[in-house]
Amino acid sequence: MPGDPRRSRCTLIFQAPEELLDDEHGPETDIPSLGCTVFQLVVGYSPFAGLWPKKDNLVRNWISTFGDLPQKWKQHTPPPNDDYDPVSLPDWLHDTYFDEGKEVEFAEAHIEELGELSQWILQYPPSDRPSISEVSKHPWLAKNPVALSISI
């Protein structure tokens, strides 16, 4: 139903797994969206970007990055595709950010901290993700004076 306040309007590549796979959303689904947004602000594109994002491709990206889907979402596992090699999010962030010829603004240690933060924020189970208060205390954000001025 158009205009339904219970329906998510989040862009596909920024959706939390439970939002995409169970159509559940709430404050906990905002945490992965924040993680994708910060990643995109630093690197220039989403961690799960694609030219034509589709649900199956996004789920394949999650599986190659975080491993198999939890049991409750196994039925959403798309057919295998050889285009997706396993890679950790921190490693992929590092390799992407320090790509040859790219002008960098962050030190390697800061990118490692952001990779760690991204991995923590983007976990499958909402219960394993940090709260926004915990996110705001992460070293990567704590070093940013703008982040410190935001009241949460």
Describe what this molecule looks like in 3D:
The protein has 8 helices and no strands. It is an all-alpha fold. Helix 2 runs antiparallel to helix 5 (108-121) and helix 4 runs antiparallel to helix 5 (108-121). The longest helix is centred in the first third of the chain and has 17 residues, at 27-43. The mean pLDDT is 83.
Compose a concise summary of this entry.
The chain is mainly alpha-helical and 152 residues long.
Describe how the helices and strands are arranged.
Layout: H1 17-22, H2 27-43, H3 55-66, H4 89-97, H5 108-121, H6 132-136, H7 139-142, H8 145-148
Rg (C-alpha, Å): 16 Å
* End-to-end distance: 32 Å
Shape estimate: globular
- Multimeric status of the protein: single chain
Q: Work out the strand percent.
A: under 5%
In N-to-C order, the SSE pattern is: HHHHHHHH
Point out poorly predicted stretches.
Answer: none
Average pLDDT taken over every residue: 83
> Strand tally, please?
0
Q: Major β-sheet, in short?
A: none
Q: What helical percentage do the residues reach?
A: 40-55%
- Please, how many helices? 8
SS content category: mainly alpha
